[in-house]
Amino acid sequence: MGAADAVRRVASKGAGAFAEDGKKTEAIVLAADGMIWTGSSSGLLIQWDGNGNRLQEITHHPCGILCFCSYGSRIWIGYVSGMVQIMDLDGNLIAGWVAHNGPVIKLVVGDGSVFSLATHGGIRGWNVSSPAPMDNILRVELAKKEQDYTRLENIRILVGTWNVGQGRASHDALMSWIGSTLPDVGIVVIGLQEVEMGAGFLAMSAAKETVGLEGSSIGQWWQDHIGKALDEESTFERVGSRQLAGLMIAIWVRKTLRTHVGDLDVAAVACGLGRAIGNKGGVGLRLRVFDRIMCFTNCHLAAHLEAVNRRNADFDHIYRTMTFTRSSNLLNNAAGMLRYLYLSCSLVFSTYLFWMLYSCGLPWVLSIAAGVSTAAQTLRGADVTTVNPDEGRPDLAEADLVIFFGDFNYRLFGISYDEARDFVSQRSFDWLREKDQLRAEMKAGKVFQGMREALVRFPPTYKFEKGKPGLGGYDSGEKKRIPAWCDRVLYRDNRASPMEPCSLECPVVASILLYDARMDVIESDHKPVRCKFNLEIARVDRSIRRHAMGELLRSNDDIKSSFEALRFVPETTVSTNRIVLQNQDKFSLKITNRSGQDMVFYQIVCEGQSTISEDEVASEYHPRGSLGFPRWLENIHKHARKRVLSIQPIPR
């Protein structure tokens, strides 16, 4: 049975064979031993024989498979997570590594290498013999030259957080908050809370999340005015944002740094009613800076003095479930267009329904909105394994730098309103810090595990009466809420210990240059907080490392010996290297393995061809290089004339 017949027979098993349990088949390959392998969107690998019988099922990586490549006794697999794996003909895993930061959509063999293509256009080549003893030699020898190709970069990041209380800020307020710190800043990340609130808006936001839409006109207003404060037109470039109900995060990058920043992803996690409403939760941005992954998460956690455990649970939920994934374009094809139109109609109907329910009362709105937002999470996260390749390990845990900021809502405990006001007026912050819930919970290891915060030297940022300047503006109403440091910035870098230096083993080291609150801003009941980071980033200078690798390949005796071993040609007998085809006669080519090895793979290359006329005169010989056999060998025309073909067996 031919290879095409075998593949057709497997395919003829029907849709049920490939779509079993909803696992869509994405790739298929014919292996060198005649077996067929298929890969599904769930990461399931299935082996079939030539008759279409299922032989085995295995999973080496819980992520969608997009492509295969078979070469000799190995099968290469490309995943949507960017990983490439190699397995043998029996399905045993040989090796695997992250090849790209995007899905691998194609694997091809050429000139002794397997080349992988990612969706972003990146192409990388991998030696067909990898993994091999030569890899270990290269790894050890290159490590000795690490200082030669390591480069240290230094950038500064400004992170700002502000609960704006559904208000808007003047240009002077924005300049006081972020404008005065900009001259040496390369990246600006801004997080806002309570951009908009109210039951009607929350219901609308939940409906928009259902169809993959987000943002609002007020959120856009904030981004535009912050952009003006940053001199967006000439100095900074806005590269991304995400809004979930009243939560918004946006990022700007200095234009001189823009070429070193990319791969932006966004995410959102709701922590409100039923873990579905976005009045509480987190919005995140993930990007690469000098090839290092950085994540920024703006949070608004549960309110009220006594809700410490709920705040801790909110953080845990955000940290564990925040999943970054590139948004899909619904307009890619006709099917996408139909789905888009259907969801748009659903949004219009949902908006009308929410308005009707809102006029009847808040509880109904919240209950319906919770159901809609749950559907949104199902749509966005239906295939979680295709996003998070390491099952059970949060996306945030993979980052080199993680910064959490926002209105965490942790309060001061064991102190009265008057006592707190007295200590604030005396600027006795050391004693007040001992009453800080967040500090106590972090010390007990209950929240923000492994993260750090600079020493708080500014007054509590909540709660103020809008429009009242100075420390006399703290809440003096009926409730008299105790002043608290609700608005915070925390971070984690690569360091295992505070004194660990920046290196390729510890590629991101952060320190804080500024951490304060702008007490002169009076547009909200919270004061805006800002934190300026200094980052040391270790990266690889690829051109120098390639040069070092080339020197090793030329000069290292062990590596040269490995290359000689790869050039070994097993003892083989070939019946002929000249094939003459005439009329419809068949010709048999016999290759005999005399090497003593159980299995030897050969690639037969058509080096060239010529045509012999009826008077036995041969035409000019036409080399074919590595293009393979001519098509007439596969389907000989009945009027084909006598042809001569030279071949050469090449062991693999």
- Can you summarize the main beta sheet? 6 strands, mixed
Strand order of the largest sheet: 14-15-13-12-22-21
Shape: elongated
In helices, the fraction of residues equals 25-40%
**Helical run tally:** 15
Cα-atom radius of gyration = 32 Å
Mean pLDDT: 79
In whole angstroms, the N-to-C terminal distance is 24 Å
**Sequence stretches where pLDDT stays below 50 over 5 or more residues:** 14-22, 326-391, 631-652
Number of strands: 28
Structural class of the helix and strand makeup? alpha+beta
What does this structure look like?
The chain has 652 residues and is an alpha+beta fold. The protein is built from 15 helices and 28 strands. The strands form seven sheets. The chain has a six-stranded mixed sheet with strand order 14-15-13-12-22-21. A five-stranded mixed sheet has the order 16-17-18-19-20. A four-stranded antiparallel sheet has the order 1-2-3-4, covered by helices on one side. Helix 5 links the parallel strand 12 (150-163) and strand 13 (187-193). Helix 3 (133-144) runs antiparallel to helix 15, helix 6 runs parallel beside helix 10 (362-380) and helix 9 packs antiparallel against helix 10 (362-380). The longest helix is centred in the middle third of the chain and has 27 residues, at 334-360. The two termini are 24 Å apart.
